[in-house]
Write a structure and sequence with these properties.
Layout (H helix, E strand, L loop, with lengths): L1 H16 L1 H7 L4 H10 L17 H14 L1 H17 L4 H8 L7 E14 L2 E11 L7 E10 L2 E11 L4 E3 L13 E11 L3 E3 H5 L18 H30 L1 E2 L5 E2 L4 H33 L6 H27 L11 H13 L6 H12 L10
Parallel strand pairs: 1-3
Antiparallel strand pairs: 1-2, 2-6, 3-4, 4-7, 5-6, 8-9
Helix pairs in contact: 1-3, 1-4, 4-5, 4-8, 5-8, 8-9, 8-10, 8-11, 9-10, 10-11, 10-12
């Protein structure tokens, strides 16, 4: 994976330069997505059978962190679009062939909240509805959508539906203050038939199963869905904090504080304490995220089941990792002086982007922390994002 990571690092200055353009366009420039594709980034979690690399997810998350350190929106859509090949690998091979059979560089966006409705019919489902926040949808030719499944008037399942571009509409609604470049627009589906092979039950993914495992046998595809997908949301925010840290240190080395008789900001002992505290929060967030994924990988490699306690620990440290990263950015932003407020500065953009990412459902701290605490106390755990 060294070549992919080296290629990404070569692109970081370009991503930083294009950050303002992405905010104006309200989506990441196509040139940036194309450049990432050429490095092999989007194939990191894709099956080898379809031209993928089947990379270690640690390498994938490391790449996402690097990208987000240069531009939060580019890092966000890279993470989201880049993780979807992992889930598609769990679908029936009929669906995999439809996505990658003709074009192995096909990208897929998503919106997992079950805001759509699917009715059971012969051979599949009739799906309709509207979904929000489909990041990077302009760059994708398929979409993964969450929906409740009805048989008559009864809810019988919660599934992910894989839909080709000709069967959905993208509605431009993305006018926001943070993550402006992600183009996280709405998806609308008029009633359309979805074959059963193009669906995946969330109850199956919850138990680390998918029919695609019959052909994609790597341990990569035996990891928990929610562990990977929630880490996919926190990692870009850690990357934003990493970039903000580097920007703040550089600013403080050059900054002279007029209000303090021309004192160099880097000579302020309190400024030194702030960067130490912020750096530790970033390092702690990252270390726990990666340590937990490695612990799950080790169990999978031994053929052992991943216990609920570890899966909830992943969620605990994931939501707190997001909070640690944002706390670090807040500390740095508050210590940077008025010049950090100027439009176009990387620090204020990282501050806006990180706080926008914080409101994602995967970053709801109370729900995740309550599940962990309840299990520790021996209480029954309700189904949730673990």
């Amino acid at each position: 994976m060294t070549e992919v990571l080296d290629g990404i690092r070569d692109l970081l200055p370009l991503f930083a330069e294009r950050a303002e353009e992405g905010e104006r366009l309200r989506q990441v420039p196509e040139a940036s997505v194309k450049s990432l594709e050429e490095t092999g980034f989007f194939r990191m979690l894709q099956p080898k059978r379809y031209g993928g690399l089947e990379s270690d997810p640690i390498d994938f998350f490391t790449a996402v962190r690097e990208i987000a350190s240069a531009d939060g929106s580019t890092g966000w859509i890279s993470s989201v679009l880049g993780v979807h090949p992992w889930q598609i690998a769990l679908f029936d091979d009929t669906a995999q062939a439809a996505v990658w059979g003709e074009d192995q560089a096909t990208l897929v966006s998503s919106s997992y909240a079950p805001t759509g409705k699917a009715q059971v019919t012969e051979g599949g489902y009739l799906l309709s509805g509207k979904w929000s926040f489909s990041s990077g949808s302009a760059h994708a030719s398929w979409v993964l959508l969450g929906g409740l499944v009805f048989d008559g008037g009864n809810v019988v399942d919660f599934k992910t539906f894989l839909i080709p571009r000709e069967k959905y509409e993208i509605v431009d609604v993305w006018n926001v203050v943070g993550l402006r470049g992600t183009g996280s627009n709405d998806i609308v589906v008029a009633e359309t038939f979805v074959p059963d092979a193009f669906t995946l039950s969330m109850s199956d993914t919850g138990r680390c199963f998918g029919p695609g495992q019959a052909v994609n046998t790597s341990d990569l595809y035996k990891l928990p869905f929610h562990s990977l997908f929630t880490t996919t949301i926190t990692t870009p925010i850690v990357g934003m904090a990493t970039g903000a840290y580097a920007e703040h240190v550089q600013m403080q080395q050059q900054r002279v504080r007029a209000a303090y008789l021309g004192e160099k900001a880097s000579s302020d002992p309190f400024a030194a304490v702030r960067i130490a505290r912020a750096g530790s929060e970033i390092d702690a967030a990252w270390a726990l995220l990666m340590e937990n994924i490695r612990a799950e990988q080790a169990l999978v490699a031994k053929g052992q089941q991943i216990p609920l306690s570890l899966r909830l620990k992943v969620r605990r440290d994931q939501v707190l990792g997001t909070q640690r990263a944002i706390d670090a950015i807040d500390e740095l932003f508050e210590a940077s002086g008025g010049r950090a407020l100027a439009e176009g500065t990387p620090l204020q953009r990282a501050w806006r982007d990180a706080h926008a990412g914080r409101v994602h459902a995967a970053n709801d701290p109370e729900r995740a922390l309550k599940m962990f605490g309840d299990l520790e106390f021996g209480h029954k755990i309700d189904p949730g994002m673990y």
